[in-house]
Amino acid sequence: MISKRMGPAFIFTCMVLAAFITGAGCISQPTDQGNPSLTATESPTLTMQATGAPVTLKGITWELVSYDSGRIAQESVTLGSTVTARFEPGGILYGSSGCNQYFASYETKGSNLLISAPQHTRLRCQSPPGVESQEKAYLIDLEKVRTFSIDGDILRLSDETGRVVLLFRRGEIPPGIPGISWKTWHLSSYRDNSGIVVGIPDTMVMTTRFLDGTISGFSGCNCYLGQYQEDGGAMAIKDLVVTDMNCRNDTVMGAERAFLNNLKGTTAYIQSDDRLLLVNDRGDSLLTYDTKAVFP
Question: Which CATH number is 184-290 given?
Fold first, then answer.
């Protein structure tokens, strides 16, 4: 199996890449992991005032419908591309920006919402036409956001003037899709380097998503992207590309290394309702997931 780490030359135009980001670089996931407090270097100063209890953002994969391209008020998503946003506990936002995987820190209070500069992988995408310019505009729009509102299955993110810059709809699993695809799997335990299966803290976020041969997710500090093949319960994961940030937390970084190694060592999977188990060729449990994450 092939594993790659993206060096500076590969991600030299990345915006900022970490679950929590300080002005000096990567933000670690501290053990108490509350929502990050955005600094003045990350976004303009904003007084956060509660405006009631809005519908939660968390635990939903939102799919972009339209965005502020800078050319017209709103521009529809390029046909053939999918842009997503998922807000997790601990102030982590991640998803697909159409070509690359990205993540950022966020902070909410009432209907106010601040998002730090996103970090992302640096792949090139020539198809569909316009996907790269769309991605650039989308990542810029995320930093403009100051408030959000949810109306049924619609999420609106607005700037400081109240103008909607990003419009999402609630993502749904298409009918008739079997197996492990489309779901966002949340890691609940992993096999460490000594062979012991350990649980992860509720405040640590590690996810995996399988879709049309592409595996992606958040590994605790970085985001990752790769390829997978599965047939009748057999599975091979290869060509992992991982953003290369040090989150200055030994516990998180150790768990992330074990997580990524376990992905590469997977040879089969077992699914039961909302639980997923990845195992190696000896039948050892490597990674255990569920889809019922608890959101505070």
Answer: 2.40.128.270
